[in-house]
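Researcher: Please predict.
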Amino acid sequence: MPSKSKTTIAAFMTELEVRDALTSMLSDQSFKTEPGYTDEELYPDHQAPFIEKHMAYLKGHPKVNPKDYLSNLRIMTKIRT
């Protein structure tokens, strides 16, 4: 079992599973999934696509459990009528 300090996305979910979950959110009209601001030069308009923004966050924060992160993301982006 990996130590807590070296936990990676793969310890919780595979990268493909996370990407699939974000893709399904992107295609579901009941979620607000617009691009987000980034200061990276990779995006000329400084707007990171929804999936790339959240994948980068999870890769940059390996101690975050992606299942919990996705659950919270669904709650925060849900469009309520």
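Model: The longest strand covers residues 36-37.
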